[in-house]
Amino acid sequence: MRRNRGFSLMEIMVIISIIMLLLSMLSPSLQQARRNARMGVCLSQLHQFAVAWTTYTDDAQGTLMGASTGRPKYDWVVTLPTPALPTNETEDNLKAGVLWPYVRDAALYRCPDEYRTGYLRTYSMSNRLGGLSGWGIETVSKQHHVHKTDRLLLMMEEPDPRGYNWGSWVINPKNSGTPHNWIDWAGNFHNKGTTVSFADTHAEYWAYQDPRTADIQSFYAFTPNNPDLVRFQEAYTP
Q1: In what order do the strands lie in the sheet with 203-207?
Q2: Full domain range(s) for residue 91
Q3: Strand partners for 194
Q4: Which pTM was predicted?
Q5: What's the structural domain count of the chain?
Q6: Are 86 and 79 in contact (CB under 8 A)?
Q7: Counts for the chain of helices (H) and strands (E), in that order
Q8: Distances in Å between the alpha carbon of 40 and those of 29, 64, 203?
Q9: CA 123, 199, 143, 134: dihedral to nearest 10 degrees?
Q10: Which of 54, 131, 154, 203 has CA 20 to 30 A from 233's CA?
């Protein structure tokens, strides 16, 4: 009669080594899958904001909500200027905006890949749509002035380093006197890329073509001949 025997210590070590090897091979794929899932959430949130923006415009008989953050009962969120400006955003800033009745979940205002603490909101709205004048472009406030909606930038991720995103998102147009300078810049929360939405409500992921884009850390960055800058300029004023 043959007796069953258990695994020897050497056999167990070999099995563990094989399992560890398989896990190490699968780990990059799993990490990429998680990143893609979070990016998908971000795209969904931006799409929801765009749909809400459109619904508000219809309810307001064609008047666009304000893209800035300092005008109560008009801007999409409200963060008042100094001295009332808080160090960080608060949920009250979101609730005071005209978009809140359409998007009543504070978690949706933050990119799931935002790695910094203290930021309740990581999305901003293009100054072109209901923003303030004085940034080198003509802003629009009525729906009938909005054209090329599938190419017109609506919202984006903004890595404002001040602890809050105050104001709208602005950039130097291609025909400005400083076309190689950013003003604001876009986030780098998605593996050297960012997510954006458009006035027709669709959202896209933009992988950066120029490595300088992901390294920007301050306003008015100078990156001549940057295809990412050109892409944003063309979507800002298509």
Answers
A1: 123-125, 153-157, 193-198, 203-207
A2: 39-236
A3: 206
A4: 0.84
A5: 1
A6: yes
A7: 4, 4
A8: 16, 27, 10
A9: 50
A10: 54
